[in-house]
Specification:
Elements: H1 2-14, H2 24-32, H3 34-49, H4 60-79, H5 82-88, H6 96-123, H7 137-169, H8 174-221
Helix pairs in contact: 2-7, 4-7, 6-8, 7-8
Length: 222
């Protein structure tokens, strides 16, 4: 009975009933939560396996990160009231313009790798976390499930649905809110991908969003 009462008190404390902007501390805590969880999993793996390497190993790290993000999104769903879920978990059937924009943005984003690789070379930093072979079916599964499906969907919920909404709710302009959101997005990738990988992921994500938005607008005008 006491344990149930303690859980009820905790839920009342963390429950987001009003605007997410009024609970910015809770919002940022939830958004950054995957970092310590993933780091703890990697540390446990190194301890059990007896390996000194930092971070994740190859494609498996993508799957671990995606699954942890899914767990955090599930926690977010629980602490949001039904009304607040409607503003954070916003999904709709994509239009033809949005599909075309997404495909075009993906192809354009591939070129960002070459640009950021040169930038990192000039800065003297290495791009880590991207060395794996797609010859192994399990590796393909880990990359597709973690990096193509779970991570993008859950990150859109956490950053565009939650963080961006919370910042704009507090009266922050859309441009400034997007800058803060992008910086936060970069920070959570730093422990696993290092400075070089974080530069690439941030640039790739920004280019895909910008190019995709432009293509959707052009498609709709056409």
């Amino acid at each position: 009975m006491t344990e149930a009462t303690g859980i009820d008190q905790l839920m009342r404390r963390v429950r987001i009933r009003d605007s997410p902007g009024d609970r910015l501390g809770t919002v940022l805590t939830i958004t950054l939560l995957p970092v310590p969880i993933v780091s703890a999993l990697y540390a446990s793996h190194r301890l059990l396996a007896g390996t000194p390497e930092a971070g994740g190993s190859g494609a498996l790290s993508y799957l671990i990160y995606g699954c942890v993000n899914l767990l955090v999104v599930a926690i977010l769903y629980v602490i949001l009231t039904p009304k607040r879920r409607e503003s954070v978990f916003v999904f709709h059937r994509p239009s033809a313009g949005e599909v075309a924009g997404s495909l075009g943005a993906f192809l354009a984003g591939l070129g960002v790798y070459q640009v950021t690789a040169r930038v990192n070379a000039v800065l003297g930093v290495q791009m880590s976390g991207f060395s794996y072979s797609l010859n192994d079916p399990m590796t393909v599964f880990a990359v597709v499930a973690g990096a193509v499906v779970l991570a993008p969907v859950t990150e859109e919920i956490l950053y565009r649905g939650l963080v961006l909404g919370a910042l704009t709710d507090r009266g922050i302009g859309s441009v400034s809110a997007t800058v803060v959101m992008t910086a936060l997005f970069a920070v959570i990738h730093l422990p696993n991908f290092g400075v070089g990988g974080t530069i690439f992921i941030s640039a790739w994500g920004s280019s895909r969003r910008s190019f995709g938005s432009a293509m959707r607008i052009s498609w709709e005008q056409w």
